[in-house]
Design brief:
alpha+beta; Enolase-like, domain 1; 2 domains; three-stranded antiparallel β-sheet
C-alpha cells in the first residue's frame, strides 16, 4: 500500500555547476553541490531552482538566529479592530500565516505602532519555536532513540 511521508533534511551545500547531465539539466547547469550529513557522507547535485525551493539557508550550523527568524517573514499586514485592538498577520516563506492581536485598556491610549510591535514579538517567538522544531527534526529525524 502506498502511504504519505514527509521529510526534513539537514545538509551543507555550495553553488556548483552540474558536473554531469542530470535529467534535463546539462553539464554546467547552475545548481548546488549537496553534502548530506549522514554517516555515509553522500554527495549529490540539485538544480538551483529546486534547491532554493526546498532548502532554507540558516546563519549558523546548529542553532536558529534572530536573522533566521526575521528572514523567514516575507510579509506583514496590520489592521485596527474596534477602537483599541491591533491585529497582525505575518506570512512566512513557506506561505504559512501567523496571526496575533494586542489591545490597550483605554481607547484613548491606542497606538497602532505599539500594537504592531507587541504582536510581532509574539509572532517571532512562535517562529523561533517552529524553526527550532524544524532544525531538530532535520538533524535527528523523527525516530531518534
Amino acid at each position: 500500500m502506498i502511504r504519505n511521508y514527509v521529510s526534513v533534511k539537514f545538509v551543507k551545500a555550495e553553488p556548483c555547476k552540474a558536473w554531469k547531465k542530470y535529467g534535463e539539466h546539462d553539464v554546467g547547469a547552475d545548481g548546488y553541490k549537496i553534502y548530506y550529513q549522514n554517516k555515509d557522507k553522500y554527495v549529490s547535485w540539485c538544480p538551483k531552482k529546486e534547491f532554493e525551493k526546498q532548502y532554507l539557508q540558516l546563519e549558523e550550523d546548529n542553532k536558529i538566529t534572530q536573522k533566521d527568524v526575521d528572514n523567514f517573514i516575507t510579509k506583514t499586514e496590520a489592521i485596527k479592530m474596534g477602537d483599541k485592538t491591533t491585529v497582525v498577520q505575518a506570512t512566512c516563506k513557506n506561505g504559512f500565516t501567523i496571526t496575533d492581536g494586542s489591545a490597550c485598556v483605554d481607547a484613548k491610549n491606542f497606538d497602532m505602532e505599539i500594537g504592531k510591535q507587541c504582536c510581532m514579538e509574539h509572532i517571532k517567538d512562535k517562529i523561533w519555536g517552529y524553526l527550532g522544531f524544524l532544525l531538530q527534526s532535520a538533524r535527528k529525524g523523527f525516530n531518534d532513540k
